[in-house]
């Protein structure tokens, strides 16, 4: 009895490898027949296409459509093949917790951002979704319609973005009018030293800057780092100033921070980890006295107010005044009951 050579088995393996390579190439970007053939020959060598490569390529694409229900279309206007749907050839499956994380990213980075890095993340998310099974894609599309309504809807004015980028690249001061977070507050003029653009997973793009001046003045601390949401800069107001930035980043002077913490907060091990180089003195009653250094009073206020009446600031006086202003504003807000309709 003649021994089986195993040639058919090897041929099937080579064919599957070649077709999987085609799918990976089309997931990267649309490609012409000539580009696909060249890439296959370069990658697979002797396991690539035979002499009649064009016919073999068409057979591979037809097999992917027939065997796996892949949707691969030829765009005549581009002269390229495009993979629209992987069908049953799902290359990636994710557990429920990973799908939830992907849904959060999908909602946090909507399409249409003016930030190129943001747009690249959006493209990556789309590619990952494309590799999922149809059931997982359906789940994400359903989540998108429910969560996208909660995502920030503000758009970045292209002229604002251009001015911010110019100021950063040329290392010059920047001025603009900025909408605050308080309802009814008119936008104020800010003069800043800009240092970079970044984004957060809430879908918003920010300017990392040092505040130099604000008009009319408010509770902001001058020379403190501030994260400005670019979509809150009033369109038409961003202007690059001729004043160059100093070689070293401007920083607010460091202030000594001292505050008392209630025993309940101390027992939870909270109240000082946010501040670097914090020194904690424990008292017999379980309370603690924390000493640290801060340069941004607004951030220190936001951190310490979360402990309510379980924390009392001792110094600096500037922070005490800032907390008093905040508490007075809250008392005014809640002091007048609003009728519930």
Automatic annotation (TrEMBL):
It comes from the Bacteria. Pfam families: WCX, WYL. PROSITE patterns: WYL. Residues 256-331 form the WCX domain. Residues 160-233 form the WYL domain. This is Transcriptional regulator-like protein. It comes from Roseiflexus castenholzii (strain DSM 13941 / HLO8).
């Amino acid at each position: 009895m003649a021994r089986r050579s195993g040639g058919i088995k090897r041929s099937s393996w080579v064919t599957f490898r070649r077709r999987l390579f085609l799918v990976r190439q089309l997931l990267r970007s649309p490609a012409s027949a000539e580009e696909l053939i060249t890439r296959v020959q370069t990658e697979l060598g002797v396991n690539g296409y035979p002499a009649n490569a064009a016919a073999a390529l068409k057979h591979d694409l037809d097999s992917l459509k027939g065997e796996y229900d892949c949707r691969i279309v030829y765009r005549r206007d581009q002269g390229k093949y495009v993979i629209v749907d992987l069908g049953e050839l799902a290359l990636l499956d994710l557990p429920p917790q990973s799908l939830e994380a992907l849904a959060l990213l999908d909602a946090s980075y909507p399409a249409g951002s003016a930030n190129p890095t943001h747009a690249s993340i959006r493209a990556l998310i789309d590619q990952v979704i494309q590799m999922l099974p149809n059931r997982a894609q359906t789940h994400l599309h359903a989540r998108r319609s429910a969560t996208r309504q909660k995502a920030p809807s503000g758009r970045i004015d292209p002229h604002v973005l251009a001015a911010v980028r110019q100021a950063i690249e040329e290392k010059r001061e920047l001025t603009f009018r900025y909408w605050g977070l308080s309802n009814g507050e008119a936008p104020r003029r800010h003069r800043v030293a800009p240092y970079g653009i970044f984004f957060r997973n809430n879908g918003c793009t920010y300017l990392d800057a040092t505040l130099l001046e604000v008009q009319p003045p408010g509770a902001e601390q001058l020379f403190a780092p501030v994260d400005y949401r670019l979509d809150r800069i009033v369109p038409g107001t961003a202007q690059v100033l001729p004043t160059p930035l100093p070689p070293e980043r401007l920083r607010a002077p460091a202030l000594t921070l001292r505050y008392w913490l209630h025993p309940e907060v101390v027992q939870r091990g909270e109240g000082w980890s946010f501040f670097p180089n914090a020194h904690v003195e424990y008292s017999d009653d379980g309370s603690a006295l924390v000493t640290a250094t801060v340069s941004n009073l607004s951030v220190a206020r936001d951190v310490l107010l979360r402990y309510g009446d379980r924390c009392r600031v001792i110094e600096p006086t500037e922070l005490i005044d800032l907390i008093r202003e905040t508490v007075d504003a809250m008392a005014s807000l809640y002091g007048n009951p609003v009728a519930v309709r």
